[in-house]
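Case study.
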Amino acid sequence: MRQAWDEVADIYTAGQAAGRDYYRYAFFGPAQVQLCGEVRGLRLLDVGCGNGYFAREMVRRGAHVTAIDLSPRMVELAEAQEVLAIDYRVMDAARMAESFPSGAFDIATSCISICDMPDPAKVFSAIHSVLRPNGRFVFSITHPCTDTPYRRWERDRAGRKQWLCIDRYFEQGAYEYPWSGWGRDFVTPGFHATLEQWIAWILEAGFQIRGIREPQPTSDALQSHPDLEDAMRVPYFMIFDVTCRNIIPREE
Ligand SMILES: C[S@@+](CC[C@H](N)C(=O)[O-])C[C@H]1O[C@@H](n2cnc3c(N)ncnc32)[C@H](O)[C@@H]1O
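After joint prediction, the assembly is written out as follows.
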């Protein structure tokens, strides 16, 4: 896993710098930022930070940010970007509880990363253990109902997207996520799970769900990137807003 992300870190970062990642920058990223709301002064942990996109958004809004990623190269590239007060660490999200005390953070965020990790149940539980009581976790994943192991747009003769064909929704586990149009095509490891499974992981880790969002592009985003039109028709991403359930110790 670490090696897979290390190998694509440079091309991923160069693609983003070249404006290729407008789904993130113009569409679901701003929706997730908006859902986080006021973060000024909060101790915030960004999980699977990559080259730091979401961590930078949060520190600019006044949060005290710690950001972790498994890939040393991603973290190197994050540190080479804008100089902002972000505490970057190379770390496996599933093992965070070994590095941070319980209650160390007020809020955690994760932008399309937890769906790239092989053991989300462990990661949810690790995040829960480093959040304070009632702490929040706001995270995005690719939409489990449309990001299935088989997905293809049926096109008409002019190449226009007609409808999205999906299959194998109930096949859970590892698959390769293809990236094209980023200079060189590449794949990254992804893990598909059903919506039912995601909700079970969230609840089993001790969170309760405050809300979810299935973002659609804004009219401004559509104007600058007309091909986001497909995201007006089917949901590509899901953003969850969850909080730690208060466990009240039983009196003996
Ligand atoms: C699609 S990238 C997203 C990066 C960033 N959040 C963004 O929005 O640009 C997914 C990131 O998850 C990281 N990752 C995968 N497994 C991980 C794990 N077990 N612990 C921490 N980070 C992990 C990868 O190294 C990669 O940087």
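Observations recorded in class. Helices lie at 2-17, 22-36, 53-60, 72-79, 120-130, 195-204, 219-224. The chain has one domain: 2-244. We will return to this complex in the next lecture.
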